[in-house]
Amino acid sequence: MTTRSILCMAAMALALACNGKTAGDGKKDKLATDSVKMEKTKKGVSITVKADYPVGNEALLEQVASFVGGQMFYTEDTEAQVVLPPFKGDFKAFLKACTQKRWDELYAYTYEDGPVAFEGDRTMPITSAEYTFRKVFEDEHCATWQCRWYYYIANAARPNMAVHGMTVCKKTGKPLDHTLLKDTDSQAFGQLLKECARQALANELEETIDSDNKLKEYILGDNDIDRLPLPLMPPYLTADGVALPYQDFELFPMHDALVVVLPYDKVGLFLNLPLQ
Fold it and tell me: Is there a contact between 39 and 46 (Cβ–Cβ < 8 Å)?
């Protein structure tokens, strides 16, 4: 089965998953890009945000705004009360409000005393942050946005980086989640994930990983390399396959996020969509 046929079937399946609806006239949504930068040069605090957003599809626009806000104020504290600026249909105004709120938190974290919303160690102040939200995949039924963010820490050799993604049905605005994949505890899926993780690591490290023992050197904890866990963040669709976004030190001993891609011609049997 070819990659193209898998993509076509995935698109058809997603249309069914979206209650049989199609995305307007079948054309791709128009796209616009906005960017905001705020800084205080005397103190060296800056934040830069750049985002693609759809024009003319309110359901998708609302979901993209939710994704942008969720990523800019992401926290691993499940009990944290995060209040986002309200989205009232004006994406540019929303992006500016989010950027201002995040800059205020960043400045307070770095230079003010007392409780702050920003997580981290004050002994290593964050001097700047960058967020980029790009549309990385689209067909007539679904679209994928990817977020990359960087935190630059004073005196650190390199920034902290994370990668998250979101695939949504364009008509309903409903995002896909971990249920996109099935039978992930099977031996066959375990072998697929192991080989794709091996390839992703080899590409990232620019070296050959030609044995299971070599691969084990790059896996944290007591994880079985034949039964690697899925990332905490949900998978998303790209032009090349299903992306699994592992964050820094989540599974691999790396300061940067590592995205493992499962090619469509190999992952088709594990897609939890009515492909048959």
Answer: yes
Task: Give the SS3 label for residue 21.
Answer: coil
CB 8 within 8 A of CB 15: no
Q: Cα separation of 129 and 144, whole Å?
A: 23
List the structure tokens of 10: 């995935």
Rg over alpha carbons for the chain, rounded to the nearest Å, is 20
CA distance 60 to 57: 6
- pLDDT tens, position by position, 232-254: 999 999 999 999 999 888 888 77
pLDDT in tens, 159-202: 888 899 999 987 777 899 999 999 999 999 999 999 999 999 99
Do residues 231 and 244 lie in contact, with contact meaning Cβ atoms separated by under 8 Å? yes
- Start-to-end C-alpha separation, the chain: 13
What are the DSSP E strand ranges found in 41-141? 45-55, 126-138
Name the residue among 75, 93, 260, 110 with its Cα closest to residue 184.
260
Beta carbons within 10 angstroms of residue 218's beta carbon: 19
Residue of 183, 180, 156, 186 whose CA lies nearest to 245: 180
Please check whether residue 152 is in contact with residue 159, taking contact to mean a CB–CB distance below 8 angstroms.
yes
